[in-house]
Amino acid sequence: MRLMNVLKTAFMALFKNKMRSFLTALGIIIGVGAVISMVNMGTGASKMVESQISSLGRDVIMIFPGSSHMGGRRGGFGSASTLTSDDADAIKAQVQEVDKVSPIVRSSGQLVYGNTNWSSSVYGVYEDYFGISNIEVTSGRLLHSNDIIGNKKVCVIGTEVAENLFGDEDPVGKNIRINKIPFKIVGLLKKKGQSMMGQSQDDVVYMPFKTAQKRLIGTTYTHYITSSAINSESVDAAKDAITDLLRRRHKITGDKEDDFHIRSSAEIIETSNTIMTALTLLLGSIASVSLLVGGIGIMNIMLVSVVERTREIGIRMAVGARPRDILRQFLIESTVLSVSGGIVGILFGVVITFIIANVADWEPYISIFWTFIAFSFSAFVGIFFGYYPAYKASRMDPIEALRYE
Amino acid sequence: MKPVIDMKGINKIYDTGAIQLHALKDADLIVEQGEFLAIMGPSGSGKSTLMNLISCMDRPTSGKYLLNGEDVSKYTLDQLAEVRNKRIGMVFQSFNLLSRTSALENVQLPLLYDGTSDFKRRHDVAMETLEEVGLKDWWHHFPNQLSGGQQQRVAIARAIVNNPTLILADEPTGNLDSKTSIEIMELLQELNGDKDKTIIIVTHETDIARYAKRIINLVDGRIIKEEKVKNRLDAKEELKNGRIKKRKAAS
Ligand SMILES: Nc1ncnc2c1ncn2[C@@H]1O[C@H](COP(=O)(O)OP(=O)(O)OP(=O)(O)O)[C@@H](O)[C@H]1O
Ligand SMILES: [Mg+2]
What is the model's pTM? Predict the structure, then answer.
């Protein structure tokens, strides 16, 4: 029996039981759809994280207080107080491989304009910070070194702050109070969207470092220091030089542990890639289970179908179908079922991917590789789970089969 | 010329665990080309068992079976399938058509397994065969839209579509009324006469057996009696007479 005939026979058999075929294929549709949307979701998320981290640039070096061996207690800024702005100044002055440096303190601030209130994250930074983090203004200006040196009470604000405090008004030149201290707004930042942690990067206020440190927070330390190497090749050399310098400044000798730790953006990108890949694989393998369940559904239905069509099998054998013709017929039927389920599942998965991307506000990403894998797997499922029922059919005794009621 | 069927010392024993059932005992049977044989006998005497062996649906427990001079008793399943496909056409009491499948497609079925024919040839050959059994205009009908007689005609068309020399019919008229039965016998007689097909039928009815040329009787798994049919009936004549009789009755 030629392939075209077998295919036609298979389609007709499936068509005669439309509802059942659809429900059986639904198992595969959901399975393939789940694998594709999960994997695409994982990949989409990691792409987004990657693009956000790399928007930092690959040459960014961050210095955090506290040892890197302090276990899980790394998260909170200022969980250890070992870094000062003098450290930042020293790095800028003495490490040749470093281009820009800024210490950073962070606090939450209560902003008041007229009788409008808004609370937001307030950062104290050097003017270098904007260059390192690619922050620009749409109107007004960024903070100058004069503002920093003079501890001026000026600030630049993100678009979200501007919208909430000023509505449509131009905030530049306006005076606001931050934690009751009057500030003058000198610039409005360009919109940046969400950060990789899902926080808005537009709900921020930047002010001169010392102003924030002394007036708002009242500390002598800095929460962390960010810097950029002169180019991405010098990152490792810069890290070593910074480590040497800080150990000297902090009087750490011999094999005593550092009281700070350094991360480069490249490392962060790599770590997050590893995490995201693991996450993607995890999601994918969870989804594969549903594909497996779909396969078992196919096997179940094919077994039922073989029994129901015993007489048909007998008739076909009586007119000259060989066991392998019967085997092939049922195998193709289950494969057609799973492959068409696979195709619809791909469409389904793509739609889900777009919906998720839309909701999560990232670029929809379709992995060709995983689409192909999920599709091949669905074909494999059809053959694998269809084989046993098909084999049973092909082994039937034609006389018994013809006598079956 | 070699006989179409040459069976010698055929035994069939069904092994159903506890009991062994000796369904055929030392059966010898020779059927020549162009014969029209009727197998008769009481229920359970082994008629269907014998038919299943002749049709290569089953293999004998012992004995020798030459089909057109070839020993098929040792054939593999695939070889037996090919024999059923090319050399034997089977007709059943319960028609055994594929449901929800058109008459034409039912007739095409054997052509799907003969490996050679393309779509157009399959269609044309099946259509011609349907025409031979007088159902050309019914090709698109499903079995449940056809009368019993028409269904049996479709089944006969399916049996002859691959042009086999041997046609086997196990109680082909068992589910039909007497007039339709004669019509089916007319068709079989035509195939036997005009097309020189060898035909073997199983029947309970002496009336039906009289359309054959020779009758064998089976009792308890043995062939006990063999006779030539005297005063053989001609189905065409019978139908004509039947019609005349009916007209007379009406007037
Ligand atoms: N597959 C089988 N397994 C066991 N016993 C069987 C099998 N097929 C037939 N038999 C037995 O073999 C004997 C002959 O059966 P067979 O069907 O040949 O009879 P038959 O002459 O065709 O009867 P009928 O006129 O009722 O169709 C019966 O006793 C039957 O029960
Ligand atoms: Mg019988």
Answer: 0.75
Please state, in angstroms and rounded to a whole number, the distance separating the CA atoms of residues A108 and B68: 101
CA B117 to chain A, closest CA, distance in angstroms equals 9
Q: What is the pLDDT of residues B219-243, one digit of tens each?
A: 999 999 899 999 999 999 989 887 5
How many structural domains is chain B composed of?
Answer: 1
Of A315, A323, A324, the CB nearest to B96: A315
- Give residue-wise pLDDT tens across range A154-190: 999 999 999 999 988 899 999 999 999 999 999 999 9
ipTM entry: 0.94
Query: Residue B156 belongs to what H/E stretch?
Result: helix B148-160
Find the residue in B nearest to A395 (Cα). B77
Per-domain residue ranges for chain A? 3-52+271-403, 94-229
B211 lies in which domain range?
33-56+76-241
CA dihedral A371, A375, A381, A383 (to 10 degrees): -160
Determine the residue of B45, B170, B203, B222 to mutate for testing ligand 1's pocket, defined as the one with the most ligand atoms within 8 A of the Cβ atom: B45
CB A333 within 8 A of CB A247: no
Ligand 1 atom with minimal separation from the B16 CA: 4
The two beta strands, A154-157 and A181-189, are: parallel
